[in-house]
Amino acid sequence: MDLGRKLLIMICMATIGLCVSPSLGAKGVKVSVVRFGIMTDIHYADREMAKERYYRQSMVKMKEAIDTMNREKVDFIVELGDFKDQDPVPTEKKTLKYLADIESVFTKFKGPTYHVMGNHDTDGISKSQFMSEIHNTGISPEKTYYSFNQKGIHFVVLDGNYTKDGKDFDHGTYQWESPWIAAKEMKWLKEDLDADQLPTIIFVHQLIDDSKEMKRSVQNAAAVRKILEHSGKVLAVFEGHINAEKYDIINKIHYYSLISMVEGSGPENNSYVIVDVHKKGGMKVHGFRRASNAKLGIQE
Question: For the chain, which domains are there?
Answer without folding.
Answer: 3-296 (3.60.21.10)
